[in-house]
Write a structure and sequence with these properties.
alpha/beta; D-tyrosyl-trna(Tyr) Deacylase, Chain: A; 37% strand; 150 residues
Amino acid sequence: MRAVVQRVKSSKVTVDSKIVGQISKGLLVLIGVGKNDGLEDIKWMSEKIVNLRIFEDENGKMNLSLLDTKGELLLVSQFTLFGDCRRGRRPSFTEAAEPSFAREIFEKFVEYIKHAYPIKVETGVFQEHMEVELVNDGPVTLLLDSKKTF
């Protein structure tokens, strides 16, 4: 799994002019599912995201996690995170999971977080054209990969 984690003051996802997911202070996380991802990737990514110490403490140091701050989480599936642009001009998506498998893993990921952690979790709509709005806080943006390729 790959993720783009963004610390936000607010974020929302709209599909066909209807808001389908919305949070206030917390994290917007774009999630890509790879063709070899499974339960261990779900667990690793979940643990990493909710425990990243990227919120400021009383001294202005990034020392608090989403759990510490009781922040909210907006998860948006995005297969293009597996786009390989190293050759040519068109991204290759050979490492991205097929849509049915990606949906299954993404939904398990969302359910795992909802049941494992006491936080508000919102999502976009899988395989829909989404408009994602955010007010990035910092900005703070991090890249994660459950296979630790970067």
